[in-house]
Amino acid sequence: MNQVRVGMIGYKFMGKAHSHAYRDIPMFFPNTPRPVMKAICGRNEEAVRQAAGQFGWEEAATDWRELVSRDDIDLIDINAPSDAHKEIAIAAAGAGKHLFCEKPLALTLADAREMLAAAETAGVKHMVGFNYRFAPAVQLARKLIGEGRLGRIYHFRATFLQDWIVDPEFPLVWRLDKTIAGSGAHGDLGAHLIDMARFLVGEMTEVVGMSETFVKERPLPGSMTGLSATGSGSGSKGPVTVDDATLFLCRFANGALGSFEATRFAAGHRCTNSFEINGSLGSVKFDFERMNELQVYFTGDPADVQGFRRVLATDPAHAYSEAWWPPGHTIGYEHTFIHEMVECLKALQENRQPVPNFHDGVLCQAVLEAVERSIAEKRWVQIGEM
Amino acid sequence: MNQVRVGMIGYKFMGKAHSHAYRDIPMFFPNTPRPVMKAICGRNEEAVRQAAGQFGWEEAATDWRELVSRDDIDLIDINAPSDAHKEIAIAAAGAGKHLFCEKPLALTLADAREMLAAAETAGVKHMVGFNYRFAPAVQLARKLIGEGRLGRIYHFRATFLQDWIVDPEFPLVWRLDKTIAGSGAHGDLGAHLIDMARFLVGEMTEVVGMSETFVKERPLPGSMTGLSATGSGSGSKGPVTVDDATLFLCRFANGALGSFEATRFAAGHRCTNSFEINGSLGSVKFDFERMNELQVYFTGDPADVQGFRRVLATDPAHAYSEAWWPPGHTIGYEHTFIHEMVECLKALQENRQPVPNFHDGVLCQAVLEAVERSIAEKRWVQIGEM
Amino acid sequence: MNQVRVGMIGYKFMGKAHSHAYRDIPMFFPNTPRPVMKAICGRNEEAVRQAAGQFGWEEAATDWRELVSRDDIDLIDINAPSDAHKEIAIAAAGAGKHLFCEKPLALTLADAREMLAAAETAGVKHMVGFNYRFAPAVQLARKLIGEGRLGRIYHFRATFLQDWIVDPEFPLVWRLDKTIAGSGAHGDLGAHLIDMARFLVGEMTEVVGMSETFVKERPLPGSMTGLSATGSGSGSKGPVTVDDATLFLCRFANGALGSFEATRFAAGHRCTNSFEINGSLGSVKFDFERMNELQVYFTGDPADVQGFRRVLATDPAHAYSEAWWPPGHTIGYEHTFIHEMVECLKALQENRQPVPNFHDGVLCQAVLEAVERSIAEKRWVQIGEM
Amino acid sequence: MNQVRVGMIGYKFMGKAHSHAYRDIPMFFPNTPRPVMKAICGRNEEAVRQAAGQFGWEEAATDWRELVSRDDIDLIDINAPSDAHKEIAIAAAGAGKHLFCEKPLALTLADAREMLAAAETAGVKHMVGFNYRFAPAVQLARKLIGEGRLGRIYHFRATFLQDWIVDPEFPLVWRLDKTIAGSGAHGDLGAHLIDMARFLVGEMTEVVGMSETFVKERPLPGSMTGLSATGSGSGSKGPVTVDDATLFLCRFANGALGSFEATRFAAGHRCTNSFEINGSLGSVKFDFERMNELQVYFTGDPADVQGFRRVLATDPAHAYSEAWWPPGHTIGYEHTFIHEMVECLKALQENRQPVPNFHDGVLCQAVLEAVERSIAEKRWVQIGEM
């Protein structure tokens, strides 16, 4: 398998990031199957046609059902709004297409499970877009843990702090609407933390959480791009139906304790997706705003030179780094998508499931919903209940 | 009032820190009433005599009951082991002495309340030793919040991370014995976080927590100084009866959300007593390992130069700083005790209650116990229940 | 002008970076003239053919003279080894092609001047590849200075620290050979610092320098990619003919003082291209290893919150940022080339000289050679002497 | 020898720092000879009497000639204004007193040599106050170098950046008057860098420098304390006769290259006394504003975890730390003086010369003057010329 023919549904923030990944792979990862950018699909014909041209897709399409049934497509990449994931994924699996689906996999655990079942029934490959796993510094953390270099893990603490809606006049964009987004900071940001925890520490057994919507009404929106938006200027307001912030504690199956916080109300934090892990032999710290760096500490260092060391994960010893630039020449956000797609394409080539896949999407969703239940019922919830 | 005659009970880690504070005050705070170091008291006659000489006390004593009843003493400074606080404080209050008591005020909320009642009945002044409030950088945080410069507070998150018992061969010192210490990381470290939260954000209304003892048995101890110790070498082990780590979430009365973590198992962290506060107009961050610094962010900064600024709280504009050295010349841990004692002595001079006082000790203890109950009963606990 | 047809000579480290820039521009800067990747040229036919395929060029070529005379090419991009720049540039200018030339413009000031004269005589546009100017954080520094927000400039200090040849067994690659590279750390790294100084502070008037080759002989090389290489294993050694480190001091025309250091012997620094500027109203600091950040200080901040603020230059207020991702989502090394090429293409569209251009290349070279003369003659050298 | 009787001449910024050191030593370094604070001396009787009381000296004196001839004094501590050092030191040595002299030892190299000769002739002990050597983090740097753990040293770069006179309205205090202060940033700040370089890397062989006085006239002063001052309000101005900033390059005898910068015009830097050293096996970085930390890098670390580690020099493995608080509990500026005095007192006890002593003062002064000559004559100057 030298190439994979892709049909992509969605063309906004994530659609752009994915498109760029497809474009860069042949240049920087020439031994990976070449993605062929067959068609991009969206409801707004003019917009999708414009995106097709700008992003480099062969065709623009508006009917995703037609797209998923085409013979000349191997992989369906789903980055449409979250509420559309399930229907598309099940249809595409039914048509025998491999699946790449942005996170969150679905709006509910039940939906996520249906999607996984459909993919398994169809025997197709499936991947879910937890891109932050693919920062080389995160890969290094995984490697250190996997090799036992941090010892037994005692603590995982993570925060995903943003501040783009601190201003109460920021409008009521779709990400603040539960019917489209499913949840707010919890599903958008917390989901990444949960996946990171699962990737690095393992499964959780129980959770207890808390959430809040600090600004309960906002101006109705005009247009939105990325995380920016303008108000409609109409003076009307509507209710925010998702959480502004969600925090929870957990226990992991291996005995570690976890602390999680996702918020869009942390002034000064544009994108502090951060974690720290403490083990019996050492610790690691990561902050996505300095995504090329991992802070690493070893208890076994000589007594007079113990301290967190700042590892710039751009050396040949670091994952993916040899595809890029010399040591010290950093990479950015978009590279996480490139690496993620490399994993997807390699897995197809090697006829194995990519990682993370729909199983991971389901398990992440189970934790998300366990936290939501914990909040609703104000109690500890076992993940096993879900 | 130009001087305050002090009798101090306790002569180890805290006794040394307090003694040094008394010694430094006349030199650096000449307008503060001069503490007269009358007598230091402890059970081990030889050790307390040695301490008296080394620390500069006029006399050494072994009978605290006699000490608290002396006519030539105005203030009793209690930094004996925590299980002795209550009895001493009540007796000293009964003898009409003003009280300075190290934290934790007592081993239980009931005891703390008794102590407060005794002090109030006796009409004496009382202070509790939450020294971290007195770092100039923390005072700056308080000032910014008090002046409304951070706006409405949304988040408080704090960790007190240490690593001195990560090694499972570290011996079973008194701080790991519930009968003496009351609790482990929670009461020792978490208490400081709770006080900081109350100082900066206000009262909490409900909590839910989790704790763990990772290493359940340890070698019996030899001797201990500060946080260092040696094993007895006997090969025997005993049970650790306190928590190694305690985490909890809370809601504050003003609507803010809080996250707390105290642990002695965070490899690489010697003394990360840290907090971050996010408000509608700005944020602050503090880490005691860089205690002279406060990170400050304002949402109102010009759009192109928004960012956390590192304020070195050594300028004339910062609390206590003019007593010390020129800007940029930092101070250390011990200075928090000096400032704390300045507050105590000034309050006596001004005939007002020092802050923080036994009320703060009681309210801190209430949160500590609410968290413990939450852990024991695995549920959210209202502070009002306590 | 909607497109620019490019012929590129060179296909290694810089050739890859430039190719990627051409590929990304239509996607992220759709309003910039579209670069058409006509032909890539190099001496090794197989290698250049492979590069053409991998990087996305329409054709591979081996004869640069033929390439520069083609009618269907508008812009010649020269990133061949430095010793070939002059001949190519002059020929291409003679053929009426616009020029993009990697730094250093030439191996000598005389050559650089000849190239500039040729370009001016031909009336073509010319640009030189000082890519670091195009980091958004650097652009912010420029903007702050240009708007007078730092006041009168007193100090510029800059270091470009690398460590890839600290190991004395690292082989004698072409960058260590004066006949090909012209100079060592000075021309390779110092040139970037000089350009940055000129960009941010202005022209220098006099310099005094010092240099050293710490490891005077090295194993003969095998192959090299980027900054990595392997020894030939033959056991033979050859002389290092360039500087390992060069430092110099300067005065600027505006009265500021400058300090420069370029070295490949700073263990622990992979790519510390850093500067700090102090003015009467404020200061800025930059380190390329954290290229998305600019540290900014203003003397006019309120007395209690003065401090360097860490500005993450990913907000809409920052140059180029709106073409990329939401705030806090960082970019990397390669983006400096994309922005640089955007400037080149826009200048062609607007029929103006790009900045920086061959004038800047000449002026940078004049400083480089003044420093070399200062070292050779062990004295202060006026830039005007050159 | 269990005690050392001290007479101190000077009672301002340094007098206070030294007094505090004498007060703290018996408490924290009980095995060091106890300093007996016999008499403090200054010209203003009222002020010195006030200082005696506040700082804890037995007597106040106004005639230093009488003081240095008293029989009941062992050590004369000279921290009077720099222009008075020589006369006092020579007289005190003549009277057989041991000497502690603040830096700069003298205003000229010739004077410094006379002072050294006088001390040697008299056979007394002599120390010079380069207090920054005594930060535990600096001691760690020295230890790593001494043990060969950084290998061969290639680079030393240091800056002492302050900003207290950036405001052109800051008055013309004595530190800006050449007749009293000898020089400006160079002698005040640069001297510390030179001593640090000598302590860590060794002797220099040649230098070339540059200096500037950016603000050439200032308002006549009112009063000054520490580094703060107020203008007289008279509207009159006077000439600044010292350098605002001095930079120089050097070669060390061991082949290393050095870069030095001292300035009072670096906005945002209150006290950035910093250095970095790069060796063949590793590097260290220090910044006095974070004086408890040393950044340490080793080339021999495993390939995937190379990076500067932040060592908090508060562990038992670090110099002086066991006298203070548990790991992670930092110390401040004043502690450098305490450690310095411990060295002085121990040397007296052990009947050896303290380090650094007048030899170091002389050698530092030789470099200072070589730089001044280099500036005056605009050429490289050999230290051997001096």
Compose a concise summary of this entry.
The structure is a homotetramer of 386-residue chains. With 386 residues, chain A is an alpha/beta fold.
Write up this protein.
Four copies of one chain form a homotetramer. The mean pLDDT of chain A is 96. The first copy, chain A, has 386 residues and is α/β, with parallel strands linked by helices. Chain A folds into two domains: 3-132, 3-Layer(aba) Sandwich (Rossmann fold), CATH 3.40.50.720; 136-290 and 292-331 and 364-377, Dihydrodipicolinate Reductase, domain 2. In chain A, helix 4 runs parallel beside helix 5, helix 5 (109-122) runs antiparallel to helix 10 (358-377) and helix 8 crosses helix 10 (358-377). In chain A, strands 18-17-16-15-7-14-13-8-19 form a nine-stranded mixed sheet. In chain A, strands 3-2-1-4-5-6 form a six-stranded parallel sheet, sandwiched between helices. Chain A is globular. Chain A starts with a strand and ends with a strand. The longest helix of chain A is centred in the C-terminal third of the chain and has 20 residues, at 358-377. The first copy, chain A, is built from ten helices and 19 strands. Chains A and B meet through strand 7, strand 8, strand 13, strand 14 and strand 15 of A and strand 7, strand 8, strand 13, strand 14 and strand 15 of B.
